[in-house]
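step=encode ok
step=design start
structure_in=
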């Protein structure tokens, strides 16, 4: 078959719900099979049957390849079609991150291949090698139901050029890459995608798979998960790449979709003729692999002595060359694409509040500052303005401007609102405790506000939404179990200066964005006055420190202030320390993600 149609499903699994996910996968395959023309192959992402970040839950969710094939056949009622599904597999008393290639028909499913992931990322947000075993069968090309040969590389497998090389040498015409790689990086442009900014990790992914396609003269089908798991967002943006390295189809960001592309396998001949890199590799492979055998490994290279050429004294003197040491201007490391960031965080709130936790409403404490205002704006778009409750919680010494600016947000968004005065509650506690100072009063105020929000959450069945930004969290500039308490926070990975940029983009009034930041817990208090350094400097100093770099071009005393606050407040960013006395300690041995 020369022409085939590929369908890529950007799938959002229900976390830990194998049966539900298999049923939905069957429904998607049926929907795809009803297209005209019908796809020859439908590809689902890595771990589509369970969700990716399930930690110790893999033991509960892993099934045999035969079981998955049988369950898919039972869930699908339609014509003959090839399907690829990522899943956690039980095989010979081991658990693998695998992908099943099966031809589904009305009689009996035909398993054509199972690929077990070879490269298990265990760094950054990943911890695969702790929970699954490394595939021992390597990379293989196999015969498909549409008549050609394919190979599968699961996620990081594709980042190692040798894996794709083996697939191509084995005769693969199509390399299928199921992936569950969370998005990172707040927006970059690229020649291959001029119409929208993409997360930096997505652009890097595309460079990888475009390189595979172009170097080996193969088609590549990259199928990505969508949805959020524990705050980590899978971006979608699935893609089909032709053998010249061109993106011929790309899915949307952060949305479920069924992406189709028509592929002409005859174009492989032209691509490999115009750029015969694969043929060159096949010819040179014996030479390249000599060093791997260890033969003559310690021998120096041989060469003939000088016997020809011109005497050095007869050569003309080389003309003077200009020395070029001009550097390209460094981009601001904290620059974001605000429209991409808006879409990212709105998708996050929809997933975490509605899909993952089952709430329809959110409740936001509106302080009159930019952080809570931005959270309210994002929540109104994600949940609907009628489903966001804005709560003003003044204390008797609160600034009138704080109340007025909070009301400005309420009026502009048109959201339901409440005003709960916390003065009596705070004063009543302080009267009983006595001997208080302004900072203790501020902590009591912050924690009292969380009591209000969580009580309103129970009353209105509305999830409390956090408003703390990354700068405050890294500097420890918040009340532990106070303003950091809400279970979902859209701003927690944005520096304060990024919050300002995004707030202006979404339309937060300038009276709020432009005023000095203040917690308004002590009269006349400002954030930058308390910290002793501006957010413009602190954010960039923090950026370098948390990357293990030494900040340059900043006053030494400011770097010392930021470093001291960062190093002395790790405890505020963690749950309480528990004495580990058993072999099943929660968070150490018994590991389940927050959304499992």
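sequence_out=
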């Amino acid at each position: 078959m020369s022409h085939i149609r590929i369908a890529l499903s950007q799938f959002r699994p229900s976390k830990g719900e194998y049966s539900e996910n298999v049923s939905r996968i069957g429904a998607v395959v049926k929907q795809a099979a009803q297209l005209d023309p019908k796809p020859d192959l439908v590809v689902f992402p890595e771990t589509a049957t369970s969700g990716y970040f399930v930690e110790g839950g893999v033991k509960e969710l892993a099934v045999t390849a035969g079981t998955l094939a049988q369950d898919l056949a039972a869930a699908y009622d339609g014509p003959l079609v090839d399907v690829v599904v990522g899943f956690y597999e039980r095989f010979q008393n081991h658990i693998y991150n695998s992908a099943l290639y099966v031809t589904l028909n009305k009689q009996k499913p035909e398993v054509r291949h199972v690929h077990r992931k070879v490269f298990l990322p265990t760094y950054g947000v990943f911890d695969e090698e702790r929970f699954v075993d490394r595939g021992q069968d390597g990379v293989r090309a196999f015969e498909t139901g549409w008549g050609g040969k394919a190979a599968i590389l699961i996620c990081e497998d594709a980042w190692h050029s040798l894996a794709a090389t083996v697939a191509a040498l084995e005769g693969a015409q199509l390399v299928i890459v199921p992936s569950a790689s969370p998005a990172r990086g707040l927006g970059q442009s690229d020649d291959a995608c001029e119409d929208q900014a993409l997360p930096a990790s997505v652009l890097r992914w595309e460079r990888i798979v475009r390189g595979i396609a172009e170097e080996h003269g193969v088609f590549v089908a990259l199928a990505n998960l969508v949805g959020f798991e524990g705050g980590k967002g899978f971006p979608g943006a699935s893609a089909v790449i032709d053998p010249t390295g061109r993106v011929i189809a790309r899915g949307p960001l952060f949305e479920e979709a069924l992406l189709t592309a028509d592929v002409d396998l005859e174009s492989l001949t032209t691509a490999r003729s115009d750029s015969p890199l694969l043929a060159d590799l096949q010819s040179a492979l014996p030479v390249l692999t000599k060093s791997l055998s260890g033969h003559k490994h310690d021998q120096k290279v041989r060469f003939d002595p000088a016997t020809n050429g011109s005497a050095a004294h007869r050569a003309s003197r080389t003309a003077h060359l200009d020395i070029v040491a001009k550097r390209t201007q460094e981009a601001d490391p904290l620059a974001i694409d605000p429209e991409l960031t808006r879409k990212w965080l709105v998708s996050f709130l929809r997933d975490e509040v509605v899909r993952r936790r089952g709430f329809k409403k959110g409740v936001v404490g509106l302080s009159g500052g930019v952080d809570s205002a931005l959270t309210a704006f994002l929540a109104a778009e994600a949940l609907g303005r009628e489903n966001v409750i804005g709560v003003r919680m003044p204390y008797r010494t609160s600034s009138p401007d704080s109340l007025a600016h909070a009301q400005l947000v309420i009026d502009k968004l048109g959201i339901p609102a409440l005003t709960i005065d916390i003065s009596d509650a705070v004063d009543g506690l302080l009267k009983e405790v006595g001997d208080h100072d302004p900072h203790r009063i501020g902590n009591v105020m912050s924690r009292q506000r969380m009591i209000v929000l969580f009580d309103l959450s129970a009353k209105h069945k509305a999830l409390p939404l956090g408003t703390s930004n990354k700068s405050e969290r890294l500097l420890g500039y918040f009340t532990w179990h106070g303003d950091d308490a809400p279970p979902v926070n859209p701003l927690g990975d944005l520096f304060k200066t990024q919050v300002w940029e995004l707030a202006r983009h979404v339309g937060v009034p300038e009276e709020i964005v432009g005023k000095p930041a203040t917690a308004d817990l002590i009269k006349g208090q400002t954030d930058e006055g308390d910290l002793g350094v501006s957010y413009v400097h602190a954010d960039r100093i923090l950026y370098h420190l948390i990357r293990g770099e030494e900040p340059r071009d900043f006053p030494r005393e400011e770097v010392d202030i930021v470093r001291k606050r960062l190093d002395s407040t790790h405890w505020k960013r963690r749950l309480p320390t528990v004495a580990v006395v058993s072999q099943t300690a929660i968070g150490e041995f018994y590991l389940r993600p927050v959304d499992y």
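step=design ok
step=annotate ok -> The longest strand covers residues 81-91.
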